[in-house]
Amino acid sequence: MMRPIKLKDVKDIEHINHIVSRYKFDIWIHGKSGMADAKSILGMYVLKLNEPLALVIPDDADYVSLFKELEQYLVIE
After folding, report:
1. Cα(39)–Cα(17) distance, integer angstroms
2. pTM metric for this prediction
3. How many CA atoms, within 13 angstroms, populate the side-chain half-sphere of residue 40?
4. DSSP single-letter state for residue 41
5. Which of 1, 2, 4, 19 could bridge 75 with an S-S bond, Cβ 3.0-4.6 Å?
6. Which residues contact 61 (CB under 8 A, 6 or more apart)?
């Protein structure tokens, strides 16, 4: 499952990393410049924040609580 996500600055990266690190399933952030494991703070620093980004999780993951915690970053389509 993919959901558009908007990150403005380093604090957003750190906050999202802190949230996703508590979940057992894989969570990735994809952008035009590449993809990063959202649980890897160093990997997330490689992302370009001025491009469209997407949060990617497995289709069978229980995402309800994750999306609730990340709602301020999710882009409403």
Report:
1. 5
2. 0.89
3. 12
4. H
5. 4
6. 1, 23, 25
Dist. CA 53–CA 62, nearest whole Å: 21
SS3 for 62? Answer: coil
Checking DSSP bridges between strand 34-37 and strand 2-5, what pairing results, if any?
Answer: unpaired
| Pair of tokens at residue 52 | 């469209």
Distance CA 32, CA 35 (A): 8
Largest Cα span, the chain: 30
Q: Judge whether 38 and 28 are in contact, CB under 8 Å.
A: yes
* φ, ψ (nearest 5 deg) of residue 30: -105, 140
Task: State pLDDT tens for residues 50-74.
Answer: 899 999 999 999 999 999 999 999 9
